[in-house]
Amino acid sequence: MKTLNIVLAGLTTVVVAAAATGCSAPELEKKERRSSTTSALGKPKPTLKTAASKETTAQYGITEWRMFRGKKDLFMTGYDDSGKAVKGVSLSFEKAEDSDDAELVTHINDGSGITAARNLATQSLASDAIPADSADFIQQVAGDLGNISGLLGGELPEIGEEVVACGANLAAVCQLALQCCAGLWWGKPGDVDSCWAAAKAAVGSAAQCAQAAVDIAGGIDLSHYKLPKGTGHIDIGAILGGHVENPFSGAGVAALANPFGATRDLVVDAETGDVDFDNTEE
After folding, report:
1. Which of 31, 70, 214, 264 has the greatest count of CB atoms below 10 A from its CB?
2. Which residues on neighbouring strands pair with residue 6, listed in sequence order?
């Protein structure tokens, strides 16, 4: 059994790797995801760029991970060695369809259209059933996120503390969002404590990335660093549910209107995870 600790600005999350459960989830109504558009502004620059693990490269052809911040969304997309988007994941904070509650919605951008949505006020979780290949991909993403967090938690003397904090917080948000929303994919309730932690970490990342703006005008490029060895594929299905109490009371959309502090909305191609500006804005 492996235990991975991610510690960030007072936030600690533990991921336990064990045997897969083999459970499947009921198929529920899914949230639609817009496809990307062609923008005259060109492609947005990633906030964080890192290498992928050898395992991810071997299995998916992904050599590099790039994270992009929108106003409400965070995208993590894998690219091959020619710079082409392969597939990825994204998360967003959205308004629930039938209330003013905020929802944390996770998307798998691999052509499957799989989503999971957690209401932050009621804790209710709705999700599509997940095919085996998408489940394998998500667990590999979780493993690389652990490696990325390990890299950012190590010695990076040439990079400022604010820059490291910005990147580490974004990695933590992704990890926490998977723990929050992925439960029904493996027949488990998910870790509800991680849902609120993901929201708080997202809001915290806006301030940290803003403080580092001068240093990361072109993004944080750590792609020349090898990821730490030893995390590998993480079995999210082994994560047990969290609190039975309601830690999300009063969590409305207003507090999460722009948690990542970006100036523009972004959209993603659900087939590949490729990111573009939303040119429906003025």
Report:
1. 70
2. 13
Residue labelled with tokens 């994919």? 185
Tokens encoding 234: 């993480």
How distant, in Å, are the alpha carbons of 64, 110, 205, 217 from that of 192? 30, 25, 20, 35
Write the pLDDT tens digit of every residue in 182-212.
Answer: 766 766 666 677 888 888 888 888 888 887 7
DSSP 3-state of 46: coil
Up-side HSE of residue 55: CA atoms within 13 Å toward CB? 18
User: What is the rounded distance in angstroms from the CA atom of residue 66 to the CA atom of residue 50?
Assistant: 7
**pLDDT 10s digits, 235-266:** 544 443 444 455 555 667 777 888 888 888 99
Tokens representing residue 166 in the block: 């910005």
Can you say whether the dihedral through the CA atoms of 136, 137, 138, 143 is positive or negative?
positive
Q: What phi, psi does 263 have (nearest 5°)?
A: -95, -15
